[in-house]
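Q: What would this chain look like folded?
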Amino acid sequence: QVQLVESGGGLVQTGGSLRLSCAASGSIESINNMGWFRQAPGRLREPVASITGGGITYLPGSVKGRFTVSRDNAKNTVYLQMNNLKPEDTAVYYCNADVRSSPRDRYFSYWGQGTQVTVSS
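A: My prediction, written as structure tokens:
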């Protein structure tokens, strides 16, 4: 089985920074796309960052210029560096990864449990 575990969430003031980490473990042959989603109370889960196996990144306009996504393939880990945080960024942040487990020849999508990010004003 495959498990994703997020860490690095916490409470910061407006303008502060946090770095989230998500480590995948278990039966892993390879990992393709990885990314981050967030969900605030009363709102749907929304994507905030993604990175392909080749290192191509995407960030929506709401976070572009403030957030950076990266990965360390040797550690099966994806990171989200969040700078200049705003109260609107307050949410539970979830890690997502497409993982291939040998001997299967396709990828399956997995989700982490989530880590709370709270930005106070």
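The first strand starts at residue 2 and ends at 7.
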